[in-house]
Amino acid sequence: MYHVAIPGQLSELNDEELLLQFQQGVAPAFEELYKRFWGVLYYQAYRMLEHEQDAQDVVQEIFTTIWTKAGGIELSGPLAAYLYTAVRNRVLNLLAHKRTYRHHLDSLKQFLSSADHSTLQHMTEKELAAYIEYEIGQLPARMREVFELSRKTALSHKEIAGQLQLSQETVKKQISNAIRTLKHKLSHFPLLF
Hints:
This protein is an all-alpha fold. It has helices at residues 7-10, 15-23, 27-49, 52-69, 79-113, 117-120, 125-137, 141-152, 157-164, 168-187, 189-192.
């Protein structure tokens, strides 16, 4: 059950008191925290990412986490330090995922560049993308799940491992096996058409 709080009083509370009010069910306390921190957290994320939409997404995810897990947040210091650390960690995970994704993409592009060009030239990019998606769909279920989480979300290997209850090494191996399998399948692509 949410408590009623007078908005003017909320602005007079310090950060930790606001979080405590929100944890006790005072929903407007979250709004006050959002107003208080959104701009500085966005600025921090933008400085690291240099990409407006990614920075907005990072900050939104942080506030979504606060909204959904407020009761589980235990501070060992100031709330500002907790939030800055959360943004930094989320940005680092996002950058690591982008590097991994680019590596996978570069690997597939490099392979395709060495394929039979006479056949590939007759295909549209859309057809090739559809074929790649089809072959991804043919991967074993667990391998496909790991590969798709790796390429379609901003999750790190560690986060994928936690979500699927696997070791990080298993996640890396599944992604590597998926790439090897896709390269093999794509090497036969000209023969299929």
